[in-house]
């Protein structure tokens, strides 16, 4: 049987070929090779009576570390405007990771009904749409934005990801009324949401394609990104790579840097450049892996 891993839980992998669902273990040879099967993987397996073993993992087109998922081609990055407050630095960090994985990103802003000044929403939309990212605004009152999200999902293997408590599960409940995913209010003491999704699982769409609900999280590291390649994952900066005066420019204090010039001219947002510098420092300060 050949199928896709649609859920991983407690050491078991659930493989679907569209009609049959097998509960599988992975062969020990994968562990010896340092390979871990991921939700989204296309695999070959053997088994009967609903149980089996994964014998082969087919080549991946993409892979994310957090959340751990393979073969997605689109990420819906869900960020609330309030409760918890919009976090542009974390959004830019998510965008760096999706860009590094070669995955298209769609930004979904939730809880618009909690924002008293629409100019805040308009400003965020304008800034990220100018970079080249689609932005969808949703509200917990009514079904605002649901149709726009469905239009982006059809035919894709998409992952919903973002900080805890921003409304991913609530959004998926609106999209798929049969799911009834667990939701929970944010913790006001911590200023962030409680984790309600505890594993990665793929949901089949009637229009074709798959959607993944993933555990929320509030931090990401740059374990696999090197300092000199970070600029490649900022769309608006990537366009001017190679124009700097000096080869190997990290776009900090080097003379003749077109990225810093672009910030001064306003074609690169000062806030995005500030985040680039912060991420660059994180990469430089990380401990080497052995």
- Please provide the ordered H/E string of secondary-structure elements: EEEHEEEEEHEHEHEHEEEEHHH
* Low-pLDDT stretches: 182-197
Question: What characterizes the major β-sheet?
Answer: 6 strands, mixed
Distance N terminus to C terminus? 38 Å
Number of strands: 15
| Overall 3D form | globular
Per CATH, what is the topology of the largest domain?
Answer: Rossmann fold
Discrete helix count: 8
Could you name the CATH class of the largest domain? Alpha Beta
How many domains? The number is 3
| Class from helix and strand fractions | alpha/beta
The CATH superfamily label of the largest domain reads P-loop containing nucleotide triphosphate hydrolases
Strand order of the largest sheet: 10-9-8-11-15-14
Rg over alpha carbons: 20 Å
Beta-strand content estimate: 15-25%
Q: Helical residue percent?
A: 25-40%
CATH architecture classification name of the largest domain: 3-Layer(aba) Sandwich
The overall pLDDT, averaged over residues, is 86
How would you portray this structure in words?
The chain is an alpha/beta fold. The chain has 3 domains: about 1-55, Nucleic acid-binding proteins (OB fold (Dihydrolipoamide Acetyltransferase, E2P), Beta Barrel); about 65-215, P-loop containing nucleotide triphosphate hydrolases (Rossmann fold); about 225-285, Probable gtpase engc, domain 3 (Ribonucleotide Reductase Protein R1, domain 1, Orthogonal Bundle), CATH 1.10.40.50. It contains 8 helices and 15 strands. It has helices spanning about 30, 90-100, 120-130, 145-155, 170-175, 235-240, 260-265, 270-285, and strands spanning about 1-10, 10-15, 20-25, 40-50, 50-55, 65, 70, 75-80, 105-110, 135, 155-160, 185, 190-195, 200-205, 210-215. The strands form 4 sheets. The chain has a 6-stranded mixed β-sheet with strand order 10-9-8-11-15-14, with helices on both faces. Strands 1-2-3-5-4 form a 5-stranded mixed β-barrel. The longest helix is centred in the last third of the chain and has 16 residues, at about 270-285. It is globular, with a radius of gyration of 20 Å. The model is unreliable at about 180-195 (pLDDT under 50).
